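Here is one chain, start to finish.
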Amino acid sequence: MTTAKIVVAGSLNADLTIYCERLPSPGETVHGNDFAVNPGGKSANQAVAAARLGGNVTLIGAVGADPNGDMLVASTAGAGVDVSHVARVPEPTGVAVISVDASGENSIIISAGANGTLAPDHIDPALFAGAAVVSLCLEVSLATVQAAAQAGHDAGATVLLNLSPYAPIAQELAALTDVLLVNAHEGSQFLGGYDMPAADSPAVAWQDALEEFARHGLHKVLLTLGSEGSVVLDSSNTAAPVVRIAPTTVDAVDTTGAGDAFTGAVAARLAAGDALAEAARFASVAAALAATRKGTQTAYPTAAEVAARV
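Its structure:
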């Protein structure tokens, strides 16, 4: 599958991951098992996921002049991503410290490092010419995210914003966003504490949620619900403004980065011309397959692997 251009602007992190039987409680120390250092960062993950699914991806970001930076550039480029606009800076490469329990659940703390240097002046509008999709997250400064969203909007691309890690955003950024991707908690925060419906709620309850998002300028929202699947809210689809996407059942080993696999797959399928609900169905399978393997980028499936399960 070859798609139109996808631009991903944002973070690259080295994932420092330790596996354990259970996550520690506050003040508690537990024994771990395997330890690994892997390439990660939400934006790099999304770029690799999209590229492994056949996407034509350009990544804009920053890493340090250090071994972790070398690893990230090599891994991302190895997946077929254009990394010529990943800057090398004096600050150390960003890191994520990750704990994963026996069920595959995780807890994550990130340190921005070089990601904190990515600024609006790194966003060259010329890079966005001909882009079909621009994929963004909030692991870099909001000013940089807004500059990339503006460049994508001006280029006529679909701006896909993953509101994670959650932070309040300006109305100007919301207005530039074509598709908002959030989990239920992030969606509730965005709407000021709105009580998000349960996954099995009737469509009328989700229609009310769509109207709440629309009041904030968002008319296409993709809500991920973990093991309960996802819900597509699309006010432009008058025939089916609410579409539930069933979960793909797998034996999860490591859910780290599964959400990024989902976002990257959505970007790849939107760039290929799919409607949002179609893209979400494909992405559900991609994310589930990613959770069956340890790691993030190294766990992401190919288009053929996803097609075999769709």
